[in-house]
Task: inverse folding
């Protein structure tokens, strides 16, 4: 009985552990933050945002999709230039437009 209690206590404590020491999350790195900032300041993103018509929901949806695609493209290009791994493993699916 005591062995079982010790085993359960050890398993519970092991499950509460944090990340391995020295392991770094790439999403928190300064290089990734710089690429996110560059993507937000990209002229293509800014130009796409200027086309937003707040009184037309269809326009807003379309422009948001265009802005997201432009940001993603610029962000990935920045990561490639810096030699960092790209996020995800599958290319983002584009929205179908009818």
Result:
């Amino acid at each position: 009985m005591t062995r079982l209690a010790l085993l359960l206590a050890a398993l519970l404590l092991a499950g509460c552990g944090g990340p391995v020491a020295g392991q770094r999350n790439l999403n928190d790195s300064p290089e990734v933050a710089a690429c996110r900032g560059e993507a937000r300041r990209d002229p293509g993103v800014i130009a796409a945002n200027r086309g937003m018509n707040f009184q037309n929901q269809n326009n807003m949806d379309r422009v948001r999709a265009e802005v997201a695609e432009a940001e993603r493209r610029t962000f990935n290009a920045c990561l490639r230039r810096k030699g960092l791994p790209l996020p995800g493993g599958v290319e983002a699916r584009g929205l179908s437009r009818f």
User: Anything to note?
Assistant: Residues 36-83 form one domain. The mean pLDDT is 80. DSSP finds four helices and no strands in the chain. The radius of gyration is 22 Å.
